[in-house]
Amino acid sequence: MARRETVLEAALSASAATQLTPVGLRATGKGHPKSWDGCLARADGTPVRTAAVEKPPALVIAVRDPFPSTGLPSPLEKWLAGQRQTPNWSIRNTSEFDRNTGVRILWAVSQRFSDQDATAILFESTAEFDAGTDFGRSNGNALFMLFNEYTGKATEKSARQFADAVAVAGIRAVTAAQRRAVIYVVSDHDDASKNRTAAVRRYLDTLGVPLFVWSRVGPGTSAWGPVDDISTYPKLATAVARVRNALDEQRVAWVDADPLDALRLKSSARCGIETLAKP
């Protein structure tokens, strides 16, 4: 974020241009220094000024197939059906991210827009849901995230671009000063992405965006690496807790560096933090 500051005092004035960039951090310990000076440095060891370290709201972006060939596994469906018959039961407070976490779904289908000058390929997404409202309207709850139906223009014959969509989710997750995570819900449809899975995972590591891979159909292998089994409610709750804990550890530092330098900063172990980005 760049801004121009003007300081006025009596009849004298002065102006200076400042640039502060948000940098994602992870707390590695409970003890932190009173001053963050010297905690972050450039690759050559030169320290950068850290104006503040804060714990802002978080955003989880879930990449989903709009038309999965298999629905939620029957154990999870049966559990949810039984809960809905319980008097006064609400989906709130079950497998919920914390109240400062918003959820957005990015559908793994794209549309092409062209004019005389350029062509853009855009992925459809939902608005951001928060964790403070009931199921049926908006909710930052993982069950709502999994059950929310697609209402866009794509059809079941549309090509899926899972790896490309995960990369786009990573970019969207770092466009604001926020804690962040991306969840990819595995689908058995073919992936028509232009980017390879391994390259996209490295890309998110470089941006400092944690990636979680969830499977609705039980344990298995994936080109993405470790997969969290969410085929039953207890397993879903465990997967949600992993994401929630990862977000809870995150912080955002405002540093006096340009965005490219900020991605290459190194942290000092004495400060109890580490940078999320892994160059």
Q: What share of the residues lie within helices?
A: 10-25%
* Arithmetic mean pLDDT: 84
Could you say which overall geometry the principal axes of the C-alpha atoms support?
Answer: globular
Largest sheet, if any? 6 strands, mixed
- What is the radius of gyration computed over CA atoms, rounded to a whole number of angstroms? 21 Å
Overall description:
The chain is α/β, with parallel strands linked by helices and 279 residues long. Helices cover 22% and strands 30% of the residues. The longest helix has 16 residues, at 233-248.
Write the layout of secondary structure elements.
Blueprint: E1 2-9, E2 12-19, E3 21-27, E4 40-41, E5 50-54, E6 58-64, H1 74-84, E7 101-114, E8 119-125, H2 142-147, H3 162-173, E9 179-185, H4 197-207, E10 211-215, E11 228-229, H5 233-248, E12 250-255, H6 259-263, E13 266-267, E14 273-275
Parallel strand pairs: 6-7, 6-9, 9-10, 10-11
Antiparallel strand pairs: 1-2, 3-12, 3-14, 4-13, 5-12, 7-8
Descriptors:
279 residues; alpha/beta; 6-stranded mixed β-sheet; 4-stranded antiparallel β-sheet; 6 helices
